């Protein structure tokens, strides 16, 4: 039985954490994710869950303590945003190479500078090569569902990698919307008990975690990490299929909205996908074949699947909510284009940058974007790569 | 296109405009609607102008942007009329609701020629009479529910009473005052 | 519990599929197998006649190469002593001297 509720994204994720009742949560507050440790510690002090909350002095420490707890055998998590994630940098790679099934609730916020507290994806995109899986939410519902699925993915023996569940700062984290919750009992049954095979606190079976791996070992270790990341695709889909049975909600590596017969497609991540869907409805009612590919899973990157879904489109726009600082666009643009190239597609692909530092992206922006794609498709306009949507000129 | 009512709130940090937007989302949710309630995203500072938004409707809401052409605007602090363009983008077939002790005639010249309906309510007076303190958000909530015809008076009052009973479980003595403020506001917004 | 990987079989020639996940090392006390004593270029020598068993030397040894039994230190564990000389430096009774070579 699903429970009809209304909650903000931060409330939804905190509630999911409460339902899962993990063992250890070290955290340090940072806007806009502060509410998550705040609400979880309230649940703990009210005696509703028995998670051990560790207040730490920095994000470097929160990830370090999460790694320690996970290596010790606990189901561990933390939450952060922006500079907090940047401050975890060193330890993110350690969590991944130690193959610890940690979950990090990331509330996406622009990296400073200039100093800014609003949404963009520069924080998680900066960590895209750290060896973590990344799953993004469009809505508070997806943020909730993604967390509930997370430990089933990270703790799977073929994966054993940490996972970032990402939602847009303020836009999702602070907006109250309708949501359907699952019964706690059902959630616990779905997630199950965590029984690690090897863990530091097992006195019967001593072990060491994170040893020095010099050149004869580093490459082989990375190969094993890569295989785990490749395995994650199937595990994520299997877990989603099981989740659909209890929730009725279907998840894939990405979502396709009117994509099948679309001539003009937008590829993007996060809350703005909903805004684009409204624009697509408007355009479809005018007979324009507009469609959307919303990336849900960015790590592992579903390259061949994306290329197959975009096959035959006239013009594809790839929207990055992140300035790549490469002088050649954003990370999503680069990776989708590489996927298209490898597939032999000759689709015109244009990379745009939108919404950085919290710049609003409206239904009108999305409609204008599609109209520009049509002009490009008709040869009326040359593609302009790496254009900022909504830049004042 | 799916139609949702869009509401924009103007207030000052600390006056509860964001809370009022969330309360409105709450009551509309309780009648079975789809809702969105969110503040303009930024650091909140006491006294600084703030904006909050609602989308309300019978179908799921997917747009995740601010609201630029609202159906209704609620002004929780009338001093904002001099500094913020509160009628910007407001649909002429919509309405604006202003918390003021002044008459409509005195207020209209401050609205940049807005041609739609103008409602006023003295939320300060209502709040102080009913609660002994100045909490404008309950009266403003009642006013917008009435003007935007989100639900009828009885349904609204029943829902709010249930919500106050839950919210003020530890200080039930304030429930009656809040209910009186809502009733009064429902009658007095004009 | 599944059979654990026998890490004594992992070496610099092992293919990636034989390396444990996260390079986890199963079993305790593995460092005993690693004879760091081979690295030594100077060797501490104890003059038992000067040693008063004050035990200042044992805790400062970075390689735990000064075994202590029943409150008394024993001779150096030369399999693991790297010859750093800290023990000679802290000995107030000049009972430890550093000899060139092994």
Structural account:
The complex is a heterotrimer of chains A (393), B (190) and C (102). Chain A contains 13 helices and 16 strands. Chain A is an alpha/beta fold and 393 residues long. Chain A has two domains: 3-247, 3-Layer(aba) Sandwich (Rossmann fold); 254-388, Rossmann fold (3-Layer(aba) Sandwich). In chain A, helix 10 (272-285) crosses helix 13. In chain B, strands 2-3-1-4-5-6 form a six-stranded mixed sheet, with helices on one face. In chain B, strand 5 (95-99), helix 2 and strand 6 (117-121) form a beta-alpha-beta unit. In chain B, helix 1 crosses helix 4 and helix 5 (153-167) packs antiparallel against helix 6 (173-188). Chain C is mainly β and 102 residues long. Chain C has a single domain (7-100), classed as 2-Layer Sandwich (Alpha-Beta Plaits). Chain C has two helices and five strands; from the N terminus they run E-E-H-E-E-H-E. Chain C has helices at 57-60, 86-90; strands spanning 25-26, 42-46, 68-69, 72-73, 96-100. In chain C, a hairpin with a 2-residue loop joins strand 3 (68-69) and strand 4 (72-73). Chain C is elongated, with a radius of gyration of 18 Å. The A-B interface holds A 6, 31-32, 117-119, 138-139, 168-172, 174-178, 271-272, 274-275, 277-278, 281-282, 285, 358, 360-363 and B 1-2, 22, 25-26, 29, 34-39, 41-43, 60-66, 68.
């Amino acid at each position: 039985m699903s429970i009809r509720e209304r909650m903000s994204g931060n409330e939804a994720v905190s509630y999911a954490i409460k339902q899962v009742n993990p063992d250890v949560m070290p955290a340090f507050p940072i806007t806009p994710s502060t509410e998550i440790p705040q609400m979880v510690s309230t649940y703990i002090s009210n005696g509703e869950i028995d998670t051990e909350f560790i207040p730490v002095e920095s994000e470097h420490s929160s990830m370090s303590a999460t790694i320690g707890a996970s290596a010790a055998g606990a189901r561990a998590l933390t939450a952060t945003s922006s500079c907090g994630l940047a401050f975890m940098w060193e330890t993110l790679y350690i969590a991944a190479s130690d193959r610890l099934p940690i979950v990090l609730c990331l509330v996406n916020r622009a990296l400073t500078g200039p100093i800014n507290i609003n949404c963009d994806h520069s924080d998680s995109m900066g960590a895209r090569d750290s060896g973590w899986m990344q799953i993004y939410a469009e809505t508070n519902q997806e943020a909730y569902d993604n967390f509930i699925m997370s430990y089933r993915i990270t703790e799977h023996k073929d994966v054993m990698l940490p996972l970032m569940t990402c939602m847009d700062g303020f836009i999702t984290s602070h907006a109250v919307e309708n949501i359907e919750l699952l019964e706690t009992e059902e959630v616990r049954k779905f997630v199950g008990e965590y029984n690690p095979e090897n863990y530091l606190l097992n006195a019967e079976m001593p072990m060491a975690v994170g040893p020095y791996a010099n050149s004869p070992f580093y490459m082989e270790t990375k190969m094993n990490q890569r295989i785990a990341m490749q395995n994650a695709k199937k595990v994520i889909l299997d877990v989603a299929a099981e989740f659909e049975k209890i929730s009725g909600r279907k998840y894939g590596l990405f979502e396709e909205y009117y994509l099948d017969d679309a001539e003009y497609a937008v590829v993007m991540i996060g809350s703005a996908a909903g805004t684009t869907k409204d624009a697509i409805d408007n355009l479809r009612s005018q007979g324009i074949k507009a469609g959307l590919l919303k990336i849900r899973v960015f790590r592992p990157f579903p390259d061949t699947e994306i290329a197959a879904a975009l096959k035959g489109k006239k013009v594809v726009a790839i929207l990055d909510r992140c300035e790549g600082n490469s002088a050649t666009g954003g990370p999503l643009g680069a990776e989708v284009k590489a996927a298209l190239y490898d597939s032999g597609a000759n689709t015109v692909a244009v990379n745009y940058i939108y919404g950085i530092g919290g710049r609003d992206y409206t239904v009108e922006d999305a409609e204008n974007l599609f109209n520009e794609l049509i002009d490009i498709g008709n040869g009326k306009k040359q593609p302009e790569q790496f254009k900022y949507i909504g830049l004042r000129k | 296109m799916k139609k949702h009512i869009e509401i924009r709130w103007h207030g000052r940090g600390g006056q509860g405009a964001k809370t009022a937007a969330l309360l409105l989302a709450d009551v509309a949710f309780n009648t079975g609607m789809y809702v969105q309630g969110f503040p303009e995203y930024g650091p909140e500072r006491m006294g600084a102008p703030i904006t909050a938004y609602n989308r309300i409707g019978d179908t799921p809401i997917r747009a995740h942007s601010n609201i630029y052409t609202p159906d209704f605007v609620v002004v929780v602090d009338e001093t904002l009329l001099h500094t913020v363009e509160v009628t910007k983008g407001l649909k002429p077939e919509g309405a604006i609701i202003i918390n003021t002790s002044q008459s409509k005639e005195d207020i209209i010249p401050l609205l940049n020629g807005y041609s739609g309906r103008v409602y006023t309510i003295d939320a300060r007076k209502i709040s102080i009479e009913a609660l002994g303190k100045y909490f404008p958000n309950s009266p403003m909530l009642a006013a917008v529910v009435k003007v935007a015809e989100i639900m009828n008076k009885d349904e609204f009052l029943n829902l709010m009473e249930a919500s106050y009973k839950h919210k003020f479980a530890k200080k039930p003595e304030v429930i009656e005052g809040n209910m009186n403020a809502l009733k009064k506001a429902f009658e007095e917004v004009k | 519990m599944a059979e654990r990987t026998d890490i004594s079989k992992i070496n610099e020639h092992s293919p990636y599929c034989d390396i444990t996940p996260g390079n986890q090392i199963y079993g305790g006390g593995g460092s005993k197998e690693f004879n760091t004593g081979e690295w030594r270029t100077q060797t501490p020598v104890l003059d038992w006649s000067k040693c008063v068993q004050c035990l200042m030397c044992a805790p400062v040894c970075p390689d735990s190469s000064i075994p202590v039994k029943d409150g008394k230190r024993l001779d150096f564990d030369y399999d693991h002593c790297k010859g750093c000389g800290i023990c000679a430096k802290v000995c107030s009774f000049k009972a430890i001297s550093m000899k060139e070579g092994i």
